[in-house]
Amino acid sequence: MLERFKVPIKDQVRVNHVDLRETVKQIFQKMGETTEDATIASEVLVDSDLRGVESHGVSNMLKEYISYYESQIIKPRADWKIVKESPSTATVDADTGLAVILGPKAMNIAIEKAKKVGVGIVTMRNAGHSGAIGHHALIAAKQDMLGMCMTTGGMRVVPTFSSEPLLGTNPIAVAAPTNSKPTFLFDVATCSVAGNKIRLAQRSGKKLMPGWVADQNGSPVMEESKLADHIDIPPLLPLGGTREIGSHKGYGLSLVAEIMCSLMSGGIPSMLEGHEAVSKHFFAAYDISAFTDIGEFKTNMDDMLSKLVNSKPAPGFEQVLYPGLPEFEDENDRLVNGIPLHKEVVDFINKTASSLEIDPLF
Amino acid sequence: MLERFKVPIKDQVRVNHVDLRETVKQIFQKMGETTEDATIASEVLVDSDLRGVESHGVSNMLKEYISYYESQIIKPRADWKIVKESPSTATVDADTGLAVILGPKAMNIAIEKAKKVGVGIVTMRNAGHSGAIGHHALIAAKQDMLGMCMTTGGMRVVPTFSSEPLLGTNPIAVAAPTNSKPTFLFDVATCSVAGNKIRLAQRSGKKLMPGWVADQNGSPVMEESKLADHIDIPPLLPLGGTREIGSHKGYGLSLVAEIMCSLMSGGIPSMLEGHEAVSKHFFAAYDISAFTDIGEFKTNMDDMLSKLVNSKPAPGFEQVLYPGLPEFEDENDRLVNGIPLHKEVVDFINKTASSLEIDPLF
């Protein structure tokens, strides 16, 4: 994550992940989820914070989820079910359950199918937010499969040449196992910058970069700006920023996620539904051993990632990274030293705990 | 395709696609391919030209393929075989056959598997170039499936922060069926600009845009430049251009293609092989009717694509497009008025025809 999104040191409170898990779990129980499902939800959120993915950890998401439960946009103990199935596929109607909880269950269904026939795909409609989809992709990688996950919902991104925000930030995640190197985990929004990062920038007063957002007419803003410079939260640009630098590629990828999540789950995209709270998801597990020798695969992964990390950096950079490496380093730090939450987030969690009559963080 | 890549009108020779197919087919036969396979190769190349994808049509690729046959880097009538198989997967060793020809065969295997179990995936190692992978993805869409294709080979793209070109242009294509709207077909390189476009810019003397290429040290070139300004053919930047505008996303997508094509076919990436001519490919067919009602899916596709095309354009633009729409319009024009080849390309084809003792184009 770019330095500009990190919580400034003066505002940080380091919180032990075990304490955070317990409090977050209890909050989900108070929302009406079972102990088992509340534990899953807590794990998905706190694991994101541990991996340095604050944009999808407790800081941004917990408040939103609570408001969704309270306004009954999402339902605890949802009566989700498989509505269509084949040897390698399943389509789930989530009954407005939170996909933070249903995502791991869907990925496990995909994994079981992949064990039997080589590939397993689960699509899900009528669901709540999924949390960081990389978390679900990782579940497959931990079982020596290639995991892929996509999600869609909301309307925040302007298609190339358009003035109307018609697309969600539609992220794509892929995880692949290794031997000794940190696991490969790619997890990015198909717009220039993840929507939640705008909120992090707002909280820390940082500037928005050229190519991140459009003005109210849909024209790409190609100079630095502050959120306060914009009339409202500005629409986001597809990855690439402008057509000439490739925004049609980010736009097209976003549509791919829309098709594979919304249309392939029997749902319809937000731009046609006209409301934003319902998300659609795609979970895939590819059993590597159905394609090739898993030992060779993992050795090749290690060798490739080593080659990248040991390549000569361009001037001004210390080291070449790969997706999953910085997150692994953050995790090692945070497991020992705690998760650096913004003091306002700690306040929010403690106030929420107090109002729900559970123990505060400290 | 950007206007700057089109053949200037003064250099255009309009060639009837039927004539072009016949000549190109005969050239492939002279390279040693069977009539059936030469017909496939001709179709893949000329269809790309018809759809306005000159970068992957006869202009750029035919010359290269002939040189590969002549230097025995690729083999006609290759003894390709399935080396590993499961109900939803197959892994192919291509015996250095050209994937322009083997791609449609692989996609058909994937489609047959998808008909039986819902999803079919074929990976291919030890192969030649695939031509425009969108062509292969379209084969699935024509059978009411979602088609996906990726490919990798070569080392032209610098990873984010690196000074060494270690990755291929690693494109990703996805095709999805519609009712009455032109078929959705997304087909893009995971770098800012496709490698072949640099050659088109060279031929037409056009400038390279900021964010397309790196200098010899790997630093992104963020102003316009001419190819002549660079010491050599410059390395390409991942989609996003710089880290702050998202190049780590293009870089990560490129690695995803590398993993799913190279490592999942039992091959290794070019950066470890140390030579560039061998490509690896990934072909997937997802049977939409295994997930949901195909009629509803196609209606939703039409409605979504209409919504996009009818959205209000940003200032300075006439219409919002979607992937596959401009190519459909080019195809309608070119079927009637001929394919606008550069006069140098026509000369090359006629000289090649003459040296192989077949009839020239005209």
Walk me through the topology.
The structure is a homodimer of 362-residue chains.
Chain A: E1 12-15, H1 17-30, H2 35-50, H3 58-70, E2 81-86, E3 89-93, H4 99-117, E4 119-127, H5 133-141, E5 145-152, E6 172-176, E7 184-188, H6 195-204, H7 247-261, H8 270-273, E8 279-287, H9 288-291, H10 294-309, H11 325-337, E9 339-342, H12 343-355
Parallel strand pairs in A: 3-4
Antiparallel strand pairs in A: 1-9, 2-3, 4-8, 5-6, 5-8, 6-7
Helix pairs in contact in A: 1-2, 2-3, 4-5
Structural class of chain A: alpha+beta
**pLDDT averaged residue by residue of chain A:** 94
Q: What is the CATH level 1 assignment of chain A?
A: Alpha Beta
Helix and strand run of chain A: EHHHEEHEHEEEHHHEHHHEH
Description:
The structure is a homodimer of 362-residue chains. The model of chain A has no long low-confidence stretch (mean pLDDT 94). In chain A, the strands form 2 sheets. Chain A has a 7-stranded mixed beta sheet, sandwiched between helices. The first copy, chain A, has helices at 17-30, 35-50, 58-70, 99-117, 133-141, 195-204, 247-261, 270-273, 288-291, 294-309, 325-337, 343-355; strands at residues 12-15, 81-86, 89-93, 119-127, 145-152, 172-176, 184-188, 279-287, 339-342. Chain A has one domain: Ribosomal Protein S8, Chain: A, domain 1, CATH 3.30.1370. The longest helix of chain A has 19 residues, at 99-117. The first copy, chain A, starts with 11 loop residues before the first strand and ends in a 7-residue tail after the last helix. Chain A is an alpha+beta fold. In chain A, strand 3 (89-93), helix 4 (99-117) and strand 4 (119-127) form a beta-alpha-beta unit. Chain A is built from 12 helices and 9 strands.
